[in-house]
Amino acid sequence: xxxxxxxxxxxxxxxxxxxxxxxxxxxxxxxxxxxxxxxxxxxxxxxxxxxxxxxxxxxxxxxxxxxxxxxxxxxxxxxxxxxxxxxxxxxxxxxxxxxxxxxxxxxxxxxxxxxxxxxxxxxxxxxxxxxxxxxxxxxxxxxxxxxxxxxxxxxxxxxxxxxxxxxxxxxxxxxxxxxxxxxxxxxxxxxxxxxxxxxxxxxxxxxxxxxxxxxxxxxxxxxxxxxxxxxxxxxxxxxxxxxxxxxxxxxxxxxxxxxxxxxxxxxxxxxxxxxxxxxxxxxxxxxxxxxxxxxxxxxxxxxxxxxxxxxxxxxxxxxxxxxxxxxxxxxxxxxxxxxxxxxxxxxxxxxxxxxxxxxxxxxxxxxxxxxxxxxxxxxxxxxxxxxxxxxxxxxxxxxxxxxxxxxxxxxxxxxxxxxxxxxxxxxxxxxxxxxxxxxxxxxxxxxxxxxxxxxxxxxxxxxxxxxxxxxxxxxxxxxxxxxxxxxxxxxxxxxxxxxxxxxxxxxxxxxxxxxxxxxxxxxxxxxxxxxxxxxxxxxxxxxxxxxxxxxxxxxxxxxxxxxxxxxxxxxxxxxxxxxxxxxxxxxxxxxxxxxxxxxxxxxxxxxxxxxxxxxxxxxxxxxxxxxxxxxxxxxxxxxxxxxxxxxxxxxxxxxxxxxxxxxxxxxxxxxxxxxxxx
Length: 678
Prior knowledge:
The chain is an alpha+beta fold. The chain has a domain at about 170-265 and about 280-320 and about 390-525: Alpha-Beta Barrel (TIM Barrel). The chain has 15 helices and 39 strands. A hairpin with a 7-residue loop joins strand 7 and strand 8. Helix 5 packs across helix 10 and helix 12 packs parallel to helix 13 (about 510-540). The longest helix has 30 residues, at about 510-540. It is globular and about 70 Å long. The two termini are about 40 Å apart. The model has no long low-confidence stretch (mean pLDDT about 95).
C-alpha cells in the first residue's frame, strides 16, 4: 500500500509517474514535527535496520550516521562523506515485526538531511529546509505471497517511479577509459594492445581531451582529424567510442552552442532574471543550461547530433551536480582576500588561512545561491527558484535532456548513457557511475555496500571506476576489483591523468593472463547478466540485492554486508582485503561453488551455514543458488561476436529462462523473447 502526503509548496520533480491520490490523514509511521521547514521523526526499536538511500557511504544498514541529499562533487570521499553525487531519498525501515516495516520517499529537489540515529540512536530525523516535500509511505502488500517484505516494498516503489533505463547489450561489455587519451593514435594503441594480448574490449571512453578547448559537442580535429572514419574503423572491430559531455557551456562568442543558448535565454539566470550566471569549469568561464525547463532540454538534447552524426552511440555526462571551480564573485573575493596577506608575517594561524583561500571558491553554497532555475510547481506553473532550493534535480534533468535527444535522433535504437550526478527519476533515462573514487581496498568494499541501495532507487545500470579513479592502484587490487566488476552492469576501468596507467596489459604477464580469464568470464556470463537485468527492469525488481532481502527472517543474513545476490541465480562474496587468499562466507541455503580459471570451471557442493572459501588471486569464485542454474556461454572478444548457441549450465536447477533481443531495440518487453535452457 502506498500513501501520499504533501507538505509546503513542492516543485514538480518528475520522480513519480503514477497518479496517487493525496491522503488527508496523518502518516501511519513517524510524526511530522514541523511543516515549514519540514521535519519528520520516527522512534526506532533496538534492532531497527535502515536500507536504501542509493549512492551513500558506509554499510548497507545506514543506522547510526548522518547523511545529506545534496548532489556534490566529492573527489576525496571516505566513510565520513555525508553527500555523494546522487540524491536518492528513499529508504526502508526494517523492524523485527514485518507488519511494522515500511518504506519512505521524500520527493523534493532541495537539500534533505537524514539523521539515522546519530544524534539519538533511537530516533530517525529527516528535515528539509527549502521547498516543500511530497512524502510517500509504503507498506508491504498483504497478498504478496512468498515475496519478502523488503522486496515487496522496493518493488512497489520502483513501480511508481517507472522502469529503469536499459542500455544496449554492448553497454554490458568491458569499457576502457582514462583522462589522458589525447589523440586518435592513443586510442588506436589501446584497442590494438587489447587485441594483441587477447583482452576482450567493448568500448573506449573519451574524456575531455577529445574536445576543442573543452567545448561541448566539439572535436579537436588536430587530435582526431576524422572522428567519423575512426569511429567506423573501431566499429569494424566491434569497439565503440563513448565521449564525455559536461554541464558547463564555454562562454565564447562565435561558439554555436553558447550563441544559441544566449540568444534564446536557455542559460540559468542571476536574481535579476536577465543576466546569465557565469562560473568557471574546464573551459574557464561558462554558462549552465537550465535543464529544469523542457524547451532547454529539447535544445541541449538536439546538440548530441553533432556526435551521433559521426557514428557515436554512447555518452557519459559529467560535472553536472553542477560542479563549479569558481564564480566571478567568489573569484573576486578570493583575490581580494589574498591581497590582505601581502607584507604580513604569516604565523601558524594566518598561514593556514592564506593557504585555504585558493580552494575557497570550489563548489560554494553562496555560489549556488547566486543563480536561478525555472521549475514547475505541482500545479504546472513555471516559476523561478533559487538554484540551491532545486539543486538536486539539475544533473538528473541533464540526463533526461540527453536521453530524450538521443531517442529523437535514433528512435529505434537504445544508446548508452550514464551520468555522474543523479536524482530519482533520472534512473529512467540513464545509468550512473559512482564518481571519483580512489585506489583503495575500502573503496572496493564501499561499492559492494552501495550497489543494493542504488538498485532500490532504480539505478540498475551502475558501477564504480574499477581499480580506483585517483591514486596509484596495485596489481592485486585490480585483480580483485575486476573479479567484482564482472558482475556489475557497468564495467569500466577508468583513471585520472596523474594516476597509474592501469590498462590491463600493463601489469605482469601472470596478471594479464588472469585479467584475460576474468574478462572471458564476463562475456561467458553476459547473456545471463543482460537477461536478468532486463527482467529486473521490466518487473520493477532489483538486479543486485543484499542476502536479507531474500532471507529477511534469517538473522545471520541480516548482518551480512559484503555478499550480494546477482540476478536470480548467483551469489558473490568478493575478497576486499589485501593479501588474503580466501574468506568466510555465509550461505543461507546450500549452494554450488563455481571456480573459474582460464575458461574452465570446477564445481563443489557447499552446505548452508558459514564456510571458509579459498579464492586464489588468479581465479574467480561465485556461487549458484539452490534450485537454480546459470548458463555460461562461449567467451568472445566483444558482443559483436556473440552467439548464444553454445553454452554450459552450472547448478542443479531444472531450467533457465533466457531473455533475448537484438541488443538495440527500444521496445522492451518479455513476451515472446524468453528461451528455455535445459
